[in-house]
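Changelog note: in this version the structure field was regenerated for every chain. One regenerated record is shown below for reference.
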Amino acid sequence: MNVAVLASGSGTNLQALIDRVHGRDGVRIVAVGSDRPDAQALERARSAGIPERAFAADAYGDRRDRDRAMADWLQSLGAELVVAAGYMRLLDPAFLDAFPQRVINVHPALLPAFPGLHVVQQALDYGVKVFGVTVHFLDSGVDTGPIILQRALHLPDASDADEVLTQLHPVEHELLVEAVTLIAHGAVGFDLANPRRVVLDR
């Protein structure tokens, strides 16, 4: 399966995919896109010999134009699955339509709790004792798509968002690698009786 990755920042989730799935078991990362020309993720892609490109917002008329250009570029490189790995922009519905049920996202909270941005701080402010990571399909809502994988981390004494995120990063890497592998092997489907329920064949 040809995989494209979208990232806005340092690209540690991208690096996990490069290290653990790229070029293995029929999985190949064919493109890395970003909304930020200075994103470290683009340098990680260059270092791995993966085509990369920035789609800065000010280079396009609006989000729809940018996302259409990005979808066209990914399709031209043969992308079959798109992974939003720390991509901090909402994707236009037209982009999602270009890859139906083939855009996934990693989120540092146990959805449906704490969608959106600054979610670890949201959780700390709420006083939760259990944090976690969700990998889910993207839809037109904000972190509302069907859930593929989740893993919880019990941190009853947590008080600092950066420290929690540091502990969640390895979980993000593991779940994202697992999700991409499962999808590439055809092991992810949907319950016909409840299309929100993702069925895994491990």
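Spot check on this record: The two ends are 18 Å apart (CA to CA). Residues 82 and 138 are 10 Å apart (CA to CA).
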